[in-house]
C-alpha cells in the first residue's frame, strides 16, 4: 500500500519544482516518462543497478544527460519508479484472483496464473524489482511496502481462508509457506525466456499444480480423486 | 563439473606467474586467501558486485590495495573464486543425499535438508552465487557449469528415479520441476535471517514437506496415509 508520502508525490520523479527554461509548466509527458523508465529498466537489467550510470540511461533513451534531469533527479529515482510502478501494477493484477468467488483453492490457482502472467509480461521491471529492491534507501523501501507487504498479505489471506475452509492443510506455517510459494513463482525470472519450450499458460498450470498439491488438505486431495488429478485440474 | 581448464588453474587467482619481489615462491597462504575471499563476499553482498571497488575489498581485509594483487588480479577473480568455491562445496554437500540407499522420496528429503543446511551455513557466498552469477564473463560461467549444471542434474536424476519407482507423479515435467524446486529453496536467501523464528531443522522440514507433496504420486500419498502425513513424515 503506498504511504501518503508517496501519494503526495514526494518521490521527486516528475516533480520539478521550477520548470526549466523553455519547457512547458505542466510537467513531463507521462508516456515519454514511462518510455524512459522502461529504457532505464533495460539498462539496469543488463548492467546491474550499481553498474549503471545516468549517462548509460541517457544514451539508451537517446537524450542528453542534462535533458534527463527534466524527468528525474537521480539514478535512485529511476529505480524507485521502476519498482513502485511494477509493484503497484502487480497488486492490481492479482486483485481479481483475491476477490474471486469460490473456495481458496480456486483463488490460489487464479492467483498463481495472475502472478505468473504478470511476471512474464513485465519480465524486465519485475526482475529489477526482485534483484534491486535492497538498493533503494530504507525510506524508499518503506514507501513501497508501507503497512507491510500487501502482496504477501494477499497470499497469506488466501492460505488462511483455505485452512478455515478445510481445503489447505491446517498445520502448514502460513507465513513461511507464503514466502516459499512466492519464492518459487518468482524464480522464473532466473530461467524463463520468452518463446521458450513452455507456453505461459502451461508454465502457470505447472506452477499451480505444484503449489496446490504442496499444501492441499487430505479431504481436498481425496475429493479431487488423488494428488495427480488435483495437480492437473483446471 | 569443473572443466579441465579450471583444474589446470587458469582462473588466475593464486596463480602468480612471476612471484613479486620479497615474496616466497610458493604462492599465497590458502587460509589467508579464503579469509580475503570471505571478506570480498561480505562487501559484494552489502554493496553489490558492481558497486564494489577493489579498494573496498582491500579496506575490508585491512590490506593495501597493492598487496591484494598478490592474491588476485581483478575484481572478477574474486567473484569467480567466491562462486566457484561455494558451488563446488554445495555439490559436495548434496552428494550423500544423491547416493543414499532408499527410494527417491527419501533421497529428495535428504537433498532438501542438505541444500537448506548448506545454504544457511554459507549464506553470504551462497547469496552472491545466486545474485551475481550473471556478472561473470561467459567463459567463467561456462567454467563453473561446464557439461551442464551438475547441481540441477543431480536433482533431475532424483526426480526421474522417483518417477520410475512410482513415488513421484509420472506426468510432472522434470526439467521445469527441478528449476521450480531449486527456486523455492533458494528463495530463503531473500528472507532467512539467522536466529529467526524457524530453526534450520524446522525450515528444512517445512521445505521438504512442500516439495515432496508437490510431486508425490497417488500411490506414495496413499501409502503414507494422506498428504498431511506425507508432508510431516521424517
TrEMBL record, chains A, B:
This is TetR family transcriptional regulator. The keyword Kinase does not apply. It comes from Streptomyces brasiliensis. Keywords: DNA-binding, Repressor, Transcription, Transcription regulation. Coiled coil: none annotated. Residues 53-72 bind DNA. Residues 30-90 form the HTH tetR-type domain. GO terms for molecular function: DNA-binding transcription factor activity; transcription cis-regulatory region binding. Residues 1-14 have a biased composition (Low complexity). InterPro entries: Homeodomain-like_sf (IPR009057), HTH-type_TetR-like_transc_reg (IPR050109), HTH_TetR (IPR001647), KstR2_TetR_C (IPR041490), Tet_transcr_reg_TetR-rel_C_sf (IPR036271). PROSITE patterns: HTH_TETR_2. Residues 1-30 are annotated as: Disordered.
Amino acid at each position: 500500500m503506498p504511504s501518503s508520502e508517496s501519494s503526495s508525490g514526494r518521490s521527486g520523479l516528475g516533480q520539478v519544482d521550477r520548470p526549466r527554461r523553455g519547457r512547458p509548466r505542466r510537467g513531463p509527458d507521462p508516456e515519454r516518462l514511462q518510455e524512459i523508465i522502461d529504457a532505464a529498466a533495460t539498462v539496469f537489467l543488463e548492467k546491474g543497478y550499481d553498474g549503471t550510470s545516468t549517462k548509460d540511461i541517457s544514451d539508451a533513451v537517446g537524450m542528453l544527460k542534462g535533458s534527463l534531469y527534466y524527468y528525474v533527479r537521480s539514478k535512485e529515482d529511476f529505480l524507485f519508479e521502476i519498482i513502485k510502478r511494477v509493484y503497484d501494477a502487480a497488486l492490481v493484477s492479482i486483485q481479481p484472483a483475491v476477490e474471486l468467488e469460490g473456495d481458496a483453492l480456486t483463488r490460489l490457482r487464479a492467483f498463481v496464473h495472475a502472478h505468473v502472467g504478470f511476471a512474464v509480461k513485465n519480465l524486465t521491471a519485475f526482475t529489477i524489482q526482485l534483484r534491486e529492491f535492497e538498493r533503494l534507501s530504507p525510506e524508499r523501501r518503506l514507501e513501497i511496502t508501507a503497512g507491510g507487504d500487501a502482496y504477501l498479505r494477499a497470499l497469506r489471506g488466501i492460505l488462511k481462508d483455505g485452512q478455515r475452509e478445510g481445503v489447505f492443510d491446517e498445520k502448514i506455517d502460513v507465513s513461511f509457506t507464503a514466502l516459499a510459494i512466492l519464492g518459487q513463482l518468482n524464480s522464473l525470472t532466473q530461467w524463463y525466456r520468452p518463446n521458450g519450450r513452455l507456453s505461459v499458460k502451461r508454465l502457470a498450470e505447472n506452477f499451480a499444480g505444484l503449489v496446490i498439491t504442496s499444501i492441499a488438505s487430505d479431504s481436498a486431495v481425496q475429493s479431487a480423486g488423488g494428488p495427480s488429478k488435483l495437480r492437473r485440474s483446471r
